[in-house]
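Can't paste images in this forum, so I'm doing it all in text. The chain is below; anyone willing to post the predicted structure tokens underneath?
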Amino acid sequence: MQATDYPQGWKRSFIILWLGCFITGLGYSMTMPFISLFIADLGNYSKLELNLYSGLAFAMTFIAQAIVSPFWGSLADRKGRKLMCMRASGVMALTIFITGMAPNAIFIVVMRFIQGSFSGYINNATALIAGETPHKRSGWVISQMLTAGTAGNLVGPLLGGTLSSILQHFVGGAWPYRIAFFLTGLLMLLVFLGTSFLVKEDFTPIEKEKMQPMGDLLKSLPNLKIVILMFITTMIVQSSTMSIDPIVSLYVKQLMHGVGDISFVAGVVAAAPGLGTLLASSKLGHKLDELGPMKILTWGLLIATLLFIPMALVSSPWTLAVLRFLLGIVSVGLMPAAQTVLTLSTPHESFGRIFSYNQSFQAIGAVLGSMLGSGISGFFNYQLVFWVTGLLLLINFMIVFPYSRLRSSR
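Text version of the structure:
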């Protein structure tokens, strides 16, 4: 890469936004896996109440995202993506810190809804840096930004679990979990300050009266079918992730017949996709630019489908870990590819709204995937979750395949 390819100050903005995405992912995964344990220490809840409140605390963020993202997208096109990153990181810093002071489960659910209503750092940071990057580098840049969140998701549970374990020896009750929220809030405050003072955005504000209505904007897009297809792809890919994540530890327990260090093995299996994504992101990011994101996306969907078949048939958790590691490598060609296609198919002045709608579809996918995984595993078995998820990806592949030779451009 040549420095002349990029506008002045791009490298610093990229580093700050990458770190911001990393900390956002870290903060989420450092607190959310332990949310049910935190809630359990806040009152004498029955098993049903505990499951209900834990599920609501998880789902509320995504429900709020799906509802309000279009509003923030419109504001981003008028005021710029940097302001949206500041809004997301600032409110997250406040709400996560306050969540650490929660007196009961309802308080956590409400704070999670507020947090979801103002969230969107990673999506806005990705849109911001994509708009500052030459088109020939879009694939690599977007894959790096999304990988930052993945890396944070990898480190978060390890840091949160270690911190809680150490603090449990010194302070009892809910305090180890409260401190994890306090620490995350302070880290997000650093993200807010870094984004505010160190990130540069070349943006010209657009008056509200001069903005195209969303319906007219969509009709004016030369590749409207592709844009809608990417919305659907984002939803399905996110669903495929969220349908599996909540049941992984339970599936591992079944494979191990309830014997052995289940927590450790489940942790390895859960972390395997993130490790694969982290190791492959740079190489596949360059391939996105060389071969075109549609081609990478198409074959990524097919390979992901094929990987889900043996996952439903495994008899060893270590085999499952290897297959999920391979899935993590393939995942670099899914969500980053879809967002690269959106970047290349959307006018710069409409980035905010298009990416916000994509975020809404991503949030819907998270809710649907969670319901799919818990519903199927509850009424049938864990293996069927993998079969159904693979079928969804196969349908997505068949829809995308006719466009696989298309090289999107503005």
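The CA atoms of residues 155 and 215 lie 41 Å apart. The radius of gyration is 21 Å.
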